Predict the structure.
Amino acid sequence: MSTQPQGALPLPEFEHIPFGSLAAAVRSLDIQQVEQLIGYERNHGQRILVLELLEHRRDELRDGAQPTSGSPGAMKPEVAGSPDSDSAVGAEPGPAVNPPAHGEPTNPAQPR
């Protein structure tokens, strides 16, 4: 089991890669690198879905799958963009609210 710091892992910023991007990121790793991530995850994050994904990829590699081309170092965590400054949310007031003509139906002191 690995107890090394995150900086020595085969995927930079491993803990910050969104789960949806992780499957593609580990495709370029060999079996030793995947096992290194499994050890790190077991000792640090213990995220069940991440462990299942890594173990599944390790099993694929054991069954003869080959790492795909690409650089795991090129993977960058996804970051949400800043909100659009031209957004119309909250820019206009809603329509005027007119009270019912015969009192408030939810107020027992003012029956209809």
